[in-house]
Specification:
- Helices cover 70% and strands 0% of the residues.
- The protein has 289 residues and is an all-alpha fold.
- The chain has 14 helices and no strands.
- The protein starts with a helix and ends in a 6-residue tail after the last helix.
Length: 289
């Protein structure tokens, strides 16, 4: 009797566990579908017929599959390909700047003792708390009115050349590196620059990759700042260029969705190719040891 009771209780526990897992799975599927729906709708709209407004598309799936919306995107402006190139230049310049300068600053804060380092790092933490929108007016006055950098790559790259968050990320990672390794290199006669190039950087491929990925995505998707400092169609990034498909009385919906699909393609490629670095980026710098 006791064995039968235990077996019955075990079956009940399995049923409860199965029911709970089923409910959790259904909830996750619903949230995943809600999250992915805008992306799926964007891609399907790009492969649909060339319609002017979203109201003309009565179904999620296009009535016919065609590439005419992509052709309309490239035919819309002689600068369509230039928009994509501009985005690559700005994103690449921002990534290179952050990988070089943020890693050097992070190493200095983590492993080099100098007067005022704690205060400077505290100021960097404060800078991380300032909303992005607050700095736009001073930056605009500096770049456009003082330095006259309108319609230049420098105006789009320099404000994000070295961000406070990336300095913080590198500092947290470098703090976990063994200090005796650096001291041994000093004894062998290596300078700080040699230590950084030959020892620190080879050990920091993960954090540098995570920083490069996040910075590239942020720069590629940035709309507001390039929109402020450019007024020539030839210097638009792809995000600013997509705004040109919206007019006062209508929106070239399908070509805009085709352009948005093209602009999202690098993000898809980076995510699936470097997925493990995205997962490591969630916890990097959060724990030591």
């Amino acid at each position: 009797m006791a064995t039968t009771g235990l077996y019955s209780q075990h079956l009940n526990n399995r049923k409860v566990l199965y029911l709970r897992n089923t409910i959790i799975t259904l909830i996750l599927v619903v949230f995943a579908a809600a999250t992915l729906f805008p992306i799926v709708y964007m891609i399907l709209s790009g492969f649909g017929p060339n319609v002017s407004t979203a109201g003309n598309m009565r179904t999620i799936f296009p009535s016919r599959w065609t590439l005419e919306s992509f052709r309309a995107f490239f035919d819309f402006s002689p600068h369509s390909l230039r928009w994509i190139w501009n985005s690559f230049v700005v994103a690449a310049g921002t990534v290179i700047g952050n990988v070089i300068f943020a890693s050097m600053a992070g190493y200095a804060f983590a492993k080099i003792r100098f007067k005022g380092s704690s205060l400077l790092f505290a100021l960097i933490l404060v800078a991380m708390m300032i909303p992005y929108q607050v700095t736009q007016i001073p930056l605009y006055i500096l770049m456009v009115q003082k330095f006259h950098m309108t319609n230049t790559y420098a105006a789009m790259i320099l404000p994000s050349l070295c961000t406070a968050y990336n300095i913080f990320l590198c500092k947290q990672f470098f703090t976990g590196l063994p200090t005796p390794l650096i001291e041994s290199a000093k004894i062998e006669g290596c300078s700080q620059f040699q230590i950084f190039i030959r020892i620190i950087l080879p050990l920091s491929k993960t954090v540098l990759a995570v920083m490069a990925i996040n910075t590239f995505m942020s720069s590629w998707n940035n709309f507001f700042w390039p929109f402020l400092v450019t007024n020539s169609p030839a210097m638009y990034t792809i995000q600013v260029g997509l705004k040109q498909f919206k007019f006062a009385n209508e929106t070239l919906f399908a070509p805009m969705m085709a352009g948005a699909t093209i602009s999202a393609l690098p993000m898809f490629i980076m995510f699936f190719a470097l997925q493990k670095y995205f997962m490591e980026g969630v916890t990097i710098g959060a724990v030591k040891g």
